[in-house]
Design brief:
Elements lengths: L9 H20 L7 E2 H5 L7 H4 L7 H13 L1 H7 L1 H29 L6 E2 L4 H14 L5 E5 L7 E5 L2 H11 L5 H17 L5 H5 L13 H43 L3
Antiparallel strand pairs: 1-2, 3-4
Helix pairs in contact: 1-4, 4-8, 5-6, 6-9, 7-9
Length: 264
């Protein structure tokens, strides 16, 4: 049974609330125009390359914010499965490509599509879809159900317990066409490449220090402590079983002697 809220998922909790707070703050201060990317004129005329560092720090409209944080909330299961240390390491190692690759792909597509692709909407859609790629590959389907669309039993749509997550992500990808689709596709491929060990070995094997996520002990020490506890419980259980067996044996023998002694 899944735990409610952000139990055992502190990194997801921080990311969830930071997106909400930053999006609201940007909207209140009326500086939303500083966070999206347009190749023309932001890069070609104004040379505003600092946008490469800021464009995924918030969402610019409530629809994208709603579906983004709802999708991220369902993806917190990945942190519970991996642990906070591995999940935070994944976010940090994939951050450079999810920041830089979408604008690079956009620059390639712009002349090929007659300037149709010129804008990337603000928001961490690429990193969310990179996490979604791990969810797709890691989390199994628990059950499926069918929804009839006509009186015929053969005309039905099949869904699973994971369909809601995919529907939320699809709505996020379609919220600001065509740039949002580009962000989603690039994020998915970056997540898939990370999982498939495509790229330098340090990209997938590097881990942040354990103290960053509040882990005071290494895994080996935890296992050693668990082994000692189990051995202690086993020894105590054996001692109890031995004592009970001795009491039973002495009780049976004492009963026989009492019979010969004529005890009532």
């Amino acid at each position: 049974m899944l735990s409610s809220g952000f139990t055992a998922a502190p990194v997801s909790k921080y990311l969830f609330f930071s997106i909400i707070v930053s999006s609201i703050a940007v909207s209140i201060t009326d500086i939303k125009y500083l966070f999206h990317i347009q190749l023309v004129p932001h890069f070609s005329h104004y040379k505003q390359y600092w946008r490469l560092l800021l464009w995924q720090s918030c969402y610019n409209n409530s629809t994208e914010l709603l579906f983004g944080v709802m999708t991220l909330y369902h993806l917190r299961i990945i942190e519970r499965l991996w642990g906070s240390r591995k999940f935070a390491s994944f976010l940090l190692t994939t951050l450079p490509p999810v920041l830089l690759v979408p604008p690079f792909v956009l620059a390639i597509l712009r002349p090929l599509t007659f300037s149709t692709f010129n804008l990337l909407p603000a928001g961490p859609t690429p990193i969310i879809f990179a996490i979604l790629a791990q969810y797709h590959a890691t989390i199994p389907t628990v059950y499926q159900y069918r929804i009839l669309i006509s009186p015929s039993p053969t005309d039905a749509l099949t869904f699973s317990d994971k369909s809601l997550v995919y529907l939320l992500a699809a709505q996020l990808a379609l919220s600001s066409l065509p740039g949002s689709v580009l962000s989603a596709v690039v994020g998915w491929f970056i997540g898939t490449a990370w999982r498939g060990d495509v790229g330098p070995e340090i990209w997938t094997n590097w881990r942040i220090p354990s103290w960053v996520t509040g882990q005071k002990q290494e895994r080996g020490e935890n296992f050693e402590e668990l082994r000692r506890r189990l051995e202690g419980d086993g020894g105590a259980g054996s001692a109890v079983d031995g004592t009970e067996g001795e009491v039973r044996r002495r009780g049976f023998g004492t009963g026989i002697l009492d019979q010969f002694r004529g005890a009532s």
